[in-house]
Amino acid sequence: MDIPDNTECKFNFNSFKIVYVVNSEYYLYKSTALTKARESHKRVSLKLHDKFATWINRWREENLMENQKSACEDWLMGHTEDLVACTTTTESCGAEDATPYFTFNKYKVYKVEYEYETKSEAGEPVEPVKEATN
Fold it and tell me: How far is CA 33 from CA 15, 16, 26, 30, in A?
């Protein structure tokens, strides 16, 4: 093995864990580690997602009432009175064959622009003031 820049490292041959080479950008891996990681990534990702989903659902059941759950959904969709006028859309994303291996909702918010028509004292519409352009 050729080690550049007089870098030192110690090996523990009993563990075969990832060893970071100090003060450099090099990593040492067991020869089959990356292949095994690719093969198990989907399984591990789905297991962690299921574990988190179970925890968050249990927390919701224990700590939130039904009106709080619906208030949260209304807030996400922009249906509360104290927000700027907007339109919120929900897009379902994700696929079973690509990370993160499950479907999830993606929210997009579009601000609503209103054009107010003003009227003069006589009741006739007033033309908007045009800004001067140079």
Answer: 13, 10, 15, 5
Is the alpha carbon torsion for 38, 39, 41, 44 positive or negative? negative
Listed in sequence order, the residues at least 6 apart from 89 whose beta carbon sits closer than 8 Å to its beta carbon are 107, 108, 110
- Nearest of 4, 40, 39, 36 to residue 23 by alpha carbon: 4
Q: What's the pTM?
A: 0.57
- Host H or E run for residue 51: helix 33-63
Q: How far apart are CA 36 and CA 7, in angstroms?
A: 29
Q: 28-51 pLDDT, tens per residue?
A: 677 788 889 889 999 999 999 999
Residue 37 is encoded by which pair of tokens? 């990681």
